[in-house]
Amino acid sequence: MRAGGKDAMTEIEVKIRIGDPKAAREKLLGLGAVVARDRHLETNVLFDFESGALRAGRRALRLRTTGKRATLTFKGEPRKSRSFKVREEFETQVRNPRELRKILKALGLRETFAYGKHRTVLRKNRLTICIDETSAGNFLELEGERHEITRFARALKFGRADFITRDYIELIGKRGEPGGPD
Fold it and tell me: pTM of the entire structure?
């Protein structure tokens, strides 16, 4: 959910590990969600300074490319929350990702992590629901107001104990480590 003033946006989201993405899609449609964007490939590249200052501050600068579309997103440090990932977010469309990479490099930023995922986007009222297929597994990502996320998760037979607030960098990076994703 992007809430806030004209310049400040607050993202509130959780991930939930799922099995079969096709079965999840059918269940979501059965609960009244509608497809906003069919399954597509997203490529995500994170940038940081040589010092790792962004990561150390739990912030991120991401360039997401989907077909010919690209978006640059800055994600601020997560706020304290037991069940939800809540953070400030700014994003803008990018017309020329290749030139943007040159600009970021000239500013002292470098690519630090890249991953791809297949994503299907659905909506239910003001809730955004993504089915993400990643190398760390399949996930639902629910983004909206806390009460909307909790209510919809309950309808899917999930509770707060199922909520994951880690990002895909952590999930993919920890794959195969003890305590990490399968």
Answer: 0.87
